[in-house]
Amino acid sequence: MDYFGAIDIGASSGVLVVGWIEDGKINLEEVYRFENGYKKHNDRYSWDLSLLFSNIIAGLKICKEKKFYLKSLAIDTWGVDYVLLDKYDKIVGDCISYRDLKTKQYINEYKSYFDEKELYKRTGIQKQLFNSIYQLLVTKINNPEYFEKAESLLMIPDYLSFLLTGIKSQEYTNATTTSLVNVKTNEWDVDLIESLGLPKKMFADNLKQAGDNIGILKKEISDIVGFECQVLHAPSHDTASAFVAIPTIDKESIYISSGTWSLVGVENSKAITTDLSRTLNFTNEGGYQYNYRFIKNIMGLWLIQNCKKVWGNKYSYSDLEQLARNSTLSEKVIIDVNDPSLYAPNNMVEAIKSLCDTKLDNEGDIVKCVYQSLAFSYSQTCEMIKKMTGKKYKRIHIVGGGSKDSYLNQLTSNLTNLDVIAGPVEGSSLGNLVTQFIGFGKIKNLQEARKMICESFELKYFKPEKRSQTEINI
């Protein structure tokens, strides 16, 4: 039996999942799960990459204990964050988190570097102040000496793969989140990079694709974990991997990757870079086999996760769902889930209350307000997608951790008036594994993989029960 490993790391947690194909079905086993989160360091929010790497090693050692001798493994993480490496391959500065607010302080200075309309046409990426391009410009303004030392730039999954193999390479899907990849060439936009005054040497001549081989585990790593294996590129942006795992074989579905963020959108063969899509703040992130994910970023379950922390983690997620069901709050109580005040508040509960005109009396009211607001935002986004693509859609596919939330799924179906298909839960891990299966010839292509996913995993179906009284305007 050939076993494959997916290391999927999000902003709040990571997981190592082993996958294999048996009797025509995909099988998964979660081997190791660990927490993640940014920390305050040098007055900035940053990631502890050494801790992440130690957790990867811990997970691989458990694979050995379970006799999962992996044929290959691949890593996917969130996008936009990166490290700069010097000539000794040491990190220059800190690995700053996208939740750090420093980029907002220089909003007026960015205009001197590029025209926003032109940037969108070149890269297809929405304006988000956490995008790598803005982070790099903040470094250029505050710490220009970093670029004097830096020899290379690696996105987080590329860096973790480098620690495993000793080989540096840059993968396409995560690279597109930098807003420095040209939508026409699907490579680094060298003219743009040089116009920003960024060192060209930090960017490889060719971006790698999911399924490409990086190398084998370094001997010192294989000695520690107890086996040798290949390390491949996954679609290393976790949303790109999640979209691979969506169990559909037609073009009539809208997709939601539901986790810390909710990414709502569709797959296109070409980027949409119209003035309307820019104004509505849609992004064209690079996907598997150069498909574009035309999506809108919505704050997602970040809101629930942080309310849970404020309440001392005394409630499970299923508890919170039940509290919301029991709440008598009006369905018309809606907040803007993308309000900047919700991005990194000291107290999420108070931040939500401050946005709501209606008094929220208890935990159930707060959670119900968040769920209703998320579903409302999904419905608005679906209407925008229909308008920009000129297409009609029959259903919504939801993958990721949020697909377990039946209450939110039903609200989404009600508000959009579309059928909702929920699952698989481990969307990013599964998509990561699927590209490895395809790379090793275990599955013929993406269409066959999605058909196999339908046959391998339990999916849940939701139909509109009623049209909400809340009016959808775009």
What structural class should be given to the helix and strand makeup? alpha+beta
Q: What is the β-strand count?
A: 17
User: Can you identify the CATH class of the largest domain?
Assistant: Alpha Beta
- What percent of the residues sit in helical stretches (DSSP H or I)? 25-40%
Strand content: 15-25%
Please tell me the total number of domains. Answer: 2
Strand order of the largest sheet: 13-14-12-11-15-16-17
Write down the CATH topology of the largest domain: Nucleotidyltransferase, domain 5
* Largest beta-sheet characterization: 7 strands, mixed
Q: What is the arithmetic mean of pLDDT?
A: 95
Low-confidence stretches: none
Q: Could you tell me how far the N terminus lies from the C terminus, measured between alpha carbons in angstroms?
A: 52 Å
> What spatial form do the alpha-carbon principal axes imply?
globular
Fourth CATH level, the homologous superfamily of the largest domain: ATPase, nucleotide binding domain
Rg, nearest Å: 22 Å
CATH architectural grouping of the largest domain: 2-Layer Sandwich
User: Number of DSSP helices?
Assistant: 17
